[in-house]
Write a structure and sequence with these properties.
Low-confidence stretches: 1-21
Mean pLDDT: 94
Number of helices: 14
Strand content: 15-25%
Structural class: alpha/beta
Radius of gyration: 22 Å
Order of helices and strands: HEHEHEHHEEHHHEHEEHHEHHH
Distance between the termini: 76 Å
Shape: globular
Number of strands: 9
Bound molecules: fe (iii) ion
Length: 333
Amino acid sequence: MKLFLSAILAAMVTFTGISPAFSQELVVYSARKEHLIKPLFDAYEKKTGVTIKYITGKAPVLLERLKSEGTQTPADLLMTVDAGNLWHAAQVGVLRPVSSAVLSANIPKSLRDPENRWFGLSKRARTIVYSTERVKPSELSTYENLADPVWKGRLALRTSKKVYNQSLVAMLMAAHGDAATEVLVKGWVNNLAAPPFSSDTKALEAVMAGQGDVAVVNTYYFGRLQKKNPHMPLAIFWPNQASGGVHVNVSGAGVTTHAKHPEAATAFLEWLSGPEAQNLFADANMEYPVNPAVAPHDFVAAWGGFKGSELGLEKAGELQADAIRLMDRAGYK
Ligand code: FE
């Protein structure tokens, strides 16, 4: 009898040991800032009882940590911004494929890895912002048009060192090919109002101050300035509406290769892609939900609807190195 009981106990221990689906703890490495993710973690903990431990840090630092920890990593999930970064994490082998009908249904194909190692969870548009004092929206049309000499001395761009611009150029290369994109980027460089800025916000502030008339930035940086200054003389323009659409990118996540709780991590990702979490996730940074069934916050919706590019974002990773070389050749610092 005693033997029988201990056999059952042993079986139970083994069962719980190999059933991470029932785990009550998850560990997240996040390149997203704490104030953007903590409310989500809290909501999920409250709903499910699953405790979420996390560390935040810069994307390359977290990636190095995951690589060096290898099989010993405590991390179940990696969260970061930009498809270029997510692609890179998958490429170096720290993310595992996840098969989930929920994720496939909730997240458009272009915003997730074709091999299911990463999933976009919020969407941002990298679009044109113009001075309402010096530019009429009818003068604007496409990213390509910003290479036209009519914009000479009027364009404010962020540095090419930033992954956002590397992804933008990579996606232009995917759409137009190398040669046409190089001509385009050279045109941008010829039109610069000032040397490239260190942040999207600085590019916007330059246009506001009259140093340049148009900038290319992520929408939420516009939103941050607009919150502080609702009457600022800047407005959003949606380019390429008659062609490939606005360049969109994501913040997202993937389950780590050596996750100790892969089922629980997948369940959390599924929840993040659903209606309950999508607004929490997107609204915290004035971004767009990836889930087409979920509407953006009113403040964001007021910028108007747009057609976004539907080219697979994995191209942002695949062509990143080529994009960096192209920007270098074009003299884009
Ligand atoms: Fe950003």
